[in-house]
Specification:
The complex is a heterodimer of chains A (72) and B (256). By secondary structure, chain A is mainly α. Chain A has a domain at 20-67. Chain A has 3 helices and no strands. The radius of gyration of chain A is 22 Å and the shape is elongated. In chain A, 39% of the residues are buried. In chain B, helix 1 (2-46) runs antiparallel to helix 2 (58-88), helix 2 packs across helix 3 and helix 4 (133-165) packs antiparallel against helix 5. Chain B has 2 domains: 1-46 and 57-127 and 198-246, no CATH class; 129-194. Chain B has helices at residues 2-46, 58-88, 97-119, 133-165, 167-188, 201-236. The longest helix of chain B has 45 residues, at 2-46. Helix content of chain B is 74%, strand content 0%. Residues 238-256 of chain B have low confidence and may be disordered. Classes of the chains: A mainly alpha (72), B mainly alpha (256). The interface between A and B is large, with 51 and 76 residues. Bound molecules: zinc ion (ZN).
Amino acid sequence: MAQSIAPPSTGTAVPATLPVKAILPWAFFFGLLMLVLLYFVGAEQGATSLISGTDVHEWVHDGRHLLGFPCH
Amino acid sequence: MNSATVRNLLVRGMLAGLIAGLFALVVASLLGEPQVDAAIAYEEAHSHEHGGVEVVTRSMQATAGLATGVLVYGVAIGGIAALAFSFALGRVGRFGPRATAALLAGAAFVTVYLVPFLKYPANPPSVGDPDSLDKRTALYFLMVLLSVLLAVAATIVGKRLAPRLGNWNASVVAGLGFVVVIGLAYAFLPSLSELPKHFPGMLLWRFRISTLAVQLVLWTAFGLTFGHLAERALGSAVRGGSKEEPASTASPAATS
Ligand SMILES: [Zn+2]
């Protein structure tokens, strides 16, 4: 039964590539946003500080250690 | 249309990252927190200047604080991995969405965590001189960046070599190149040894193993969850939108 089905419609073929032009805007803005999030979890108020104080550092402290970032 | 597909994948990547983060959080709580507590107890027994007021209590750090850190991390790496997936799909080889997601997650575990870890392993509280934090931070992020960039380069080189050497040999050669350059980086970047003299070895070992477990669970859960979600997203998208597809699958056995 399966062998008579026309190949173009079956899903196991090599997937179509997504054009780089369609990816770049998302990659730029959201890639940057995600990196900012990683920075706040992994490094803020350690070697560098954007916000004064130690609240961010103290709040994510255990996560920072257990995710492998240098902490204190 | 294609832009909507990328957005769709991005959203699903962040969702898969959140789900993977929940699994990682369980491991971090059960395996990691006891080691962090023990290390802090050691620190307080040995530190000279005893710290002032706690900004965040220990119980908050170990629960809500830990959850914030791990889940935000999960969402962020999920989003970035989804963007990398959008580039990789159909470009790294003849892999479907689920296989691409699994390969990407495995490669990410190795390059984002394991390779930097082997040079600069995770440290519990009280291991590491506070005065060297700037240097340790710079070296760690340098190592992560180097590892990721080299992995991308190795993938591109492997792809270039594939027509001449075949897929298997090209992958082995590219992988060897990666290992050699990483080995050089290991050799030339400064090593850190800031372990307090009598810090319990078993505690250090358990802490480091628990961080490896956290990452292994995170990336495994992400690869499987995102692969599933991506396959569904792409399956429902309209096919044939790409001009680049050479329709190579239709040629050999289609008419038999
Ligand atoms: Zn710390």
